Structure formats: structure tokens, C-alpha cells
């Protein structure tokens, strides 16, 4: 374990800026948001510590809202352009768990998604422990902790006016070796302070989610409601704005769109939303999941039933951004709780497809 | 790293008019695209879009690929306006295709509707190309009217093959038609086939698949002997973009030919 002071962190950011575009937390009113750091224009490195996950998900840093996957040239189709490597600060455990989730589909797959894989290999992640719990945070409900356990290059735990630094990858190891002046050996007290904060944080997230506590696996409680009218109640205030999909760090649906650009036809991959009425519409007119309630239910089935069956993990990292973003005040924790504790006749709502 | 999003360029070699609404495009890809019967490809009109099609040609033929297309949407409408010599893109093949190894020594009941005979023709080429791979082939094919029958020039040849019987039907009586009249399901009432030694493989519009499935169950076919070429909107073709799911399955990756036993508990899987 290493220790680094806050001035050393600023120095590290300045050094990394030579090889990477820097993305780091910034303040916007009361919120911490993601911003691109322009060190040439800024007076100094001002990277505030975000106590819990940023307002928006970090997903676009690997999975851009739209990106060119292929381009037709005179010689035929070619792959799309490469991305610039990015060094990312402010990532929390839920953001990293989301990478593990999307990796299953985009990376550990017979057909990898090349843009995602490239970004995953090129990007550098300097993560951090949570030091406060956001109101909607519920990582412990989906089996995770408010401190990173994997997928980071370096992880920072605030202790003693600086940071305890954990190395999580060969890239992180190299970073420490390249900057010997910035890192010192950490002490047993530093580690003890980190562990104490982690215990406190876990207890805090658990305490705030006690009202939503569930006993059964989500898969089980959702499966038993396959045809229940409860879905109509849960979806009653959904206005299909797609905000939950957009802010979600694990949602990864996309649509390929072909565009006849000036310098040749290109294929663009764009974010998509399973709440969209035309999401699954076919040529000739058929549309599976025509009703909003069917799409709402499919969203839960996908995250908590199908994805675990296909990939062995739940497709939710418990970041709570969907709770904050929902204008219909639909709270996923509340929905999961009600799915376990409430019961309505099961033969009234037609099935899931 | 393999990049499944970049198409292989292909030139339209020939266009065969099958019916007033269906054309077969004979394509010459820049490099061979080997596929198994029932697997599909994404065919791209550059700058406009792609659509998924299962080739209708023989899987043993790799220099050219035939795709039989009904004019029914944005991409297919444009395809029908194209002429030989134009350049398209092909990605794939994707999906699992038909359960060929299971058909070994079995009777295959092929049930097609309209342009749904296209992927099944690829299966027929496979079955006819490997004479020992199945015991007997029974083909039931329904079209709206005689003019909308696909691959008419081949029907006689299929009927004449040993171990093959081919019965076409049209929905309503038509002048000059002396064959069977009625929906394709009406050809399934008196099947002289051993249910424990027969696989039924069907492709057609969703509503047809639904009624064919119910009929097959009615006449004693077990769910694990019914295979359906299912329809959903597919974009990536590789099981990663999300939209073609039926319950936990992605049709593009796990299908598009699904065993009914796997989807029977997913209500509305057949619309």
C-alpha cells in the first residue's frame, strides 16, 4: 500500500495530462459532475473530492452516446476512428461494478464491441472510496460495497489529509513506479483508518435502505409477478422519458444507424432505450411489447432475471441515479421491495416477451 | 480483434423476380461468407440501413449468396429498386441456424409461408445435398395466391425427388389453380408421420407460426420437435445491442430458429 498527499495527486494529474485527456469531478451548485479538465486554460489543478458517485454516469467515457463503427471508403468498408485515451478520476465502486457488468456483453463475448474494448484498454481509472452516502445510493442492496473492489488502476481512500493508494492493475503499478517521488509507503494506521471508514460507509448505506430490505432473491420475486397487475401500479407514473436508461451506468442497448455522410456512408452506433415504443418494431409493422407496462416489466426482467441467467450477475450496480432522474418518482428500491412484499392475482396481465 | 460491425462488400450479380413483391438477389461477396442453413446475415444498403435475412441459397455454395427479399420496409423497398452491379454490404453470418445434427436419420417436416420459404430453401439444399442426413422430407407451403408463390420453377423438381413430398396451398380459390386451397395449417391435419421420429421446422409470418405451432401440438408433436424461425427487430446480430430478446434469449444469437420447448413458457413469444 502507498500513501500520497493532495499536492502529489495534483502533480500526478498534471503528468497524466501529457498522455491522456483528463476527466475529473467538478462542482455544479451542490452537485459533483464529470468534466473534462483543461489544464492549459486552468490556473491550477482543482479536482474536488466527490464523496459519492458523480451525478451522471461515467458510461459515456467507454460507450459514447454515438460513435462511428464503420465507414465506406473507395476500397470498401473500414473500422471507425480510434478514441483518445482518457484518465478518469472520481469513479466509485458502483461505476466500476457497471464496467464489470457491461464487460460481460461487450468484452467477454464471442463478438466483442470494438469501441468499448478499445476504450477499456486505453482508459486509466483512478477510483475512490465513498466517504458519504448519496440519498439514493443502494449498492449494498444489490450485493456490493461502497468501496471499489476491482476494475481500477489505482484506488484512493482519504486518510490523514491525503490518500491511501491501492494498486489494482499492471497499469496502476507502472504509474506508481514511474512517479516514485509522489508516493510514500503507507502505515498500518492509514489502513486502519481506511477500514474504519469502509465499515462506517457500508453501515450507512445499509441503514438508509433498511425500509426497502428484501429477503428473497430479486429474480424470485420478479419471476413470481410475471403476469401480475402490480406492474401496472409500479409503472403508473412512468412517462417513458428514458432518463433511467440514459443515466444508468449498466444500460447498454444501442441501435445501428446508417448515415449517408458527405465523405461516404458511415454506420453509427447510438444509445437506445428499451422504454421506447418502437424499440423492437419490425419491418412490416409488428411491435413486440406494445404497451408501456410490458416494456417497464421487461426492463426489470432484463436487469434482475435474464441478465443473471445469461451472465451470472445482476445488471444493476445500485448507484441510484435512476431514482434521482425519474420525474415520475419511481424508485427502483421501492419497486423491488413491493415486488417481494405485495401480491396481486397473477392471471390478469399478459406475459413477458 | 474481430470486428463484427464492419461489412464485407458485395456486388449484386443478378436479380430474379420471384413474385410481384419478392425478388431474389444473387450476391457476389468480396470474400466468401460461409454459413450454415438457417443462420442469417445483415444486408446493408450503404448509407441507408441494414436488415436481417437468412440466405435462401445452398450453404455448400460460398462464391455467391442468394437472398430472397419481400418488399416490406425502408431497406427492402430500396433493395427492390436496385439493379445488378450495385454495391451492398454483408455482415455475418449470425445465429445458430437449424438444428442440423438433430435431423440425422429423422423425417423433416418443412412448413413455409410466403417468403418464409426462403430460409427453408437453404435447409432443403442442405438436406438434398447430403442424401443420408435425413430419412424423408415433407414440404407444406402456403402462399396467398398462385402469383405470390416463391421458387415456382423448383417445385416440380422437389416433388420428383425420392423421399420428398411437396404440397403447395393457396389461401383462397383462384382461377387456373387446381391444387389445395386453404391456410397451410389445413395441410397438417392428416400427416402420415411418426411424431417420435419427425422434426417440424417452420418459417413464415408470426401469426402463421402461432397457428402452425398450435396445430402441431394438437396433432401430437412434442414441443421439443418443433422449430420456429422467429421474427424480431435485430440490429447488431450478435446478442449485444439488446432489442431482439424473447425472455432471456436473444434471437440473433440463440436463434433465429428456436425450439418451441424453450420458449413455450414465455407468453406472447409468438405475438
Offer a few descriptive terms.
heterodimer; A: 353 residues; alpha+beta; 2 domains; 8-stranded mixed sheet; 4-stranded antiparallel sheet; 11 helices; 12 strands; B: 271 residues; alpha/beta; Elongation Factor Tu (Ef-tu), domain 3; Rossmann fold; 7-stranded mixed sheet; 6-stranded antiparallel sheet; 15 strands
What can you tell me about this protein's structure?
The complex is a heterodimer of chains A (353) and B (271). With 353 residues, chain A is an alpha+beta fold. Chain A folds into 2 domains: 2-62 and 83-210, no CATH class; 218-258 and 275-341, no CATH class. Chain A has helices at residues 6-16, 93-106, 114-122, 170-178, 188-208, 218-224, 230-234, 243-247, 292-311, 321-325, 332-341, and strands spanning 2-5, 21-28, 31-37, 66-73, 76-79, 86-91, 124-128, 154-159, 162-167, 184-185, 254-261, 264-271. In chain A, the strands form 2 sheets. An 8-stranded mixed sheet of chain A has the order 3-2-6-7-8-9-1-10, with helices on both faces. In chain A, strands 5-4-12-11 form a 4-stranded antiparallel sheet, with no helix packed on it. In chain A, helix 6 packs across helix 9 (292-311). The longest helix of chain A has 21 residues, at 188-208. The termini of chain A are far apart. By secondary structure, chain B is an alpha/beta fold. Chain B contains 6 helices and 15 strands. In chain B, strands 10-9-8-7-11-12-15 form a 7-stranded mixed sheet, with helices on both faces. Chain B starts with 7 loop residues before the first strand and ends in an 8-residue tail after the last helix. The interface between A and B is large, with 53 and 47 residues.
Q: What integer value in Å does the Rg of chain A equal?
A: 22 Å
Following the backbone from N to C, one meets helices and strands of chain B in this order, namely: EEEEEHEEHEHEEEHEEEHEH
Tally of DSSP helical segments of chain A: 11
Q: Report on the biggest sheet of chain A.
A: 8 strands, mixed
What share of residues are in beta strands of chain A? 15-25%
**Using CB atoms under 8 Å apart, which protein chain pair has the greatest interface?**
A-B, 53 and 47 residues
The quaternary structure here is heterodimer
**Coarse structural class of chain B:** alpha/beta
Shape of chain B: globular
CATH class of the largest domain in chain B: Alpha Beta
What distance separates the N and C termini of chain B?
Answer: 38 Å
Overall structural class of chain A, as computed from helix and strand content, comes to alpha+beta
CATH fold-level label of the largest domain in chain B? Rossmann fold
* Tally of helical segments of chain B: 6
Q: How many domains, in number, for the residues of chain A?
A: 2
Residues in β-strands, percent of chain B: 25-35%
Q: What helical percentage do the residues of chain B reach?
A: 10-25%
- Overall pLDDT score of chain B: 94
Outline the biggest β-sheet of chain B.
Answer: 7 strands, mixed
Annotation, overall tally of beta strands of chain A: 12
Amino acid at each position: 500500500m502507498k500513501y500520497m498527499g493532495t499536492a502529489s495527486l495534483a502533480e500526478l494529474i498534471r503528468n497524466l495530462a501529457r498522455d491522456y485527456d483528463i476527466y475529473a469531478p467538478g462542482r455544479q451548485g451542490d452537485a459533483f459532475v464529470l468534466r473534462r479538465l483543461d489544464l492549459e486554460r486552468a490556473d491550477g489543478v482543482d479536482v474536488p473530492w466527490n464523496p459519492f458517485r458523480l451525478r451522471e454516469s461515467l458510461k459515456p467515457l467507454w460507450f459514447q452516446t454515438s460513435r462511428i463503427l464503420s465507414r465506406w471508403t473507395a476500397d470498401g468498408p473500414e473500422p471507425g476512428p480510434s478514441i483518445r485515451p482518457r484518465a478518469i478520476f472520481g469513479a466509485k465502486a458502483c461505476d466500476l461494478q457497471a464496467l464489470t457488468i457491461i464487460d460481460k456483453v461487450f468484452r467477454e463475448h464471442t463478438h466483442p464491441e470494438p469501441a468499448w474494448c478499445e476504450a477499456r484498454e486505453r482508459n486509466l481509472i483512478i477510483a475512490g472510496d465513498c466517504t458519504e452516502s448519496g440519498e439514493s445510493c443502494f449498492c449494498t442492496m444489490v450485493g456490493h460495497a461502497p468501496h471499489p473492489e476491482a476494475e481500477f488502476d489505482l484506488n484512493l481512500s482519504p486518510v490523514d489529509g491525503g490518500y491511501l493508494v491501492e494498486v489494482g492493475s499492471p497499469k496502476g503499478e507502472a504509474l506508481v513506479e514511474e512517479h516514485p517521488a509522489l508516493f510514500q509507503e503507507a502505515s498500518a494506521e492509514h489502513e486502519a483508518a481506511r477500514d474504519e471508514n469502509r465499515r462506517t460507509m457500508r453501515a450507512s448505506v445499509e441503514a438508509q435502505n433498511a425500509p426497502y430490505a428484501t429477503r428473497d432473491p430479486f429474480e424470485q420475486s420478479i419471476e413470481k409477478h410475471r403476469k401480475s397487475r402490480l406492474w401496472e401500479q409500479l409503472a403508473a407514473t412512468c412517462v417513458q422519458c428514458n432518463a433511467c436508461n440514459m443515466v444508468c451506468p449498466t444500460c447498454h442497448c444501442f441501435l445501428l444507424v446508417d448515415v449517408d455522410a458527405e465523405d461516404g456512408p458511415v454506420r453509427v452506433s447510438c444509445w437506445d432505450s428499451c422504454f421506447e415504443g418502437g424499440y423492437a418494431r419490425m419491418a412490416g409493422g409488428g411491435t413486440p411489447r406494445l404497451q408501456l407496462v410490458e416494456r417497464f416489466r421487461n426492463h426489470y426482467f432484463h436487469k434482475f432475471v435474464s441478465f443473471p441467467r445469461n451472465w451470472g450477475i445482476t445488471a444493476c450496480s445500485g448507484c441510484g441515479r435512476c431514482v434521482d432522474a425519474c420525474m415520475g418518482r419511481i424508485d427502483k428500491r421501492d419497486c423491488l421491495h413491493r415486488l417481494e412484499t405485495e401480491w396481486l392475482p397473477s392471471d390478469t396481465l399478459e406475459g413477458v416477451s | 480483434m474481430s470486428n463484427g460491425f464492419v461489412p464485407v462488400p458485395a456486388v449484386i450479380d443478378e436479380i430474379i423476380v420471384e413474385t410481384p413483391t419478392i425478388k431474389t438477389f444473387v450476391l457476389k461477396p468480396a470474400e466468401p461468407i460461409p454459413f450454415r442453413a438457417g443462420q442469417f446475415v445483415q444486408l446493408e444498403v450503404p448509407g441507408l440501413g441494414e436488415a436481417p435475412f437468412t440466405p435462401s441459397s445452398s450453404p455448400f455454395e460460398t462464391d455467391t449468396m442468394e437472398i430472397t427479399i419481400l418488399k416490406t420496409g425502408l431497406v427492402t423497398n430500396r433493395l427492390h429498386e436496385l439493379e445488378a452491379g450495385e454495391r451492398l454490404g454483408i455482415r455475418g453470418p449470425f445465429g445458430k441456424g437449424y438444428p442440423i445434427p438433430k435431423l440425422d436419420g429423422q423425417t423433416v417436416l418443412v412448413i413455409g409461408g410466403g417468403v418464409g420459404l426462403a430460409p427453408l430453401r437453404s435447409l432443403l439444399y442442405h438436406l438434398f445435398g447430403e442424401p443420408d442426413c435425413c430419412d424423408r422430407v415433407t414440404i407444406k407451403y402456403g402462399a396467398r395466391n398462385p402469383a405470390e408463390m416463391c421458387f415456382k420453377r423448383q417445385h416440380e423438381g422437389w416433388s420428383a425427388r425420392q423421399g420428398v413430398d411437396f404440397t403447395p396451398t393457396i389461401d383462397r380459390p383462384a382461377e387456373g389453380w387446381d391444387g389445395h386451397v386453404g391456410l397451410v395449417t389445413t395441410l397438417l391435419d392428416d400427416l402420415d408421420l411418426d411424431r417420435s421420429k419427425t422434426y417440424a421446422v417452420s418459417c413464415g409470418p408470426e401469426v402463421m407460426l402461432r397457428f402452425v405451432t398450435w396445430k402441431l401440438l394438437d396433432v401430437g408433436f412434442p414441443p421439443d420437435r418443433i422449430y420456429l424461425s422467429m421474427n424480431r427487430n435485430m440490429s447488431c446480430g450478435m446478442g449485444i445491442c439488446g432489442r431482439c430478446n424473447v425472455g432471456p434469449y436473444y434471437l440473433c444469437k440463440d436463434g433465429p430458429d428456436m425450439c418451441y420447448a424453450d420458449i413455450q413458457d414465455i407468453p406472447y413469444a409468438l405475438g
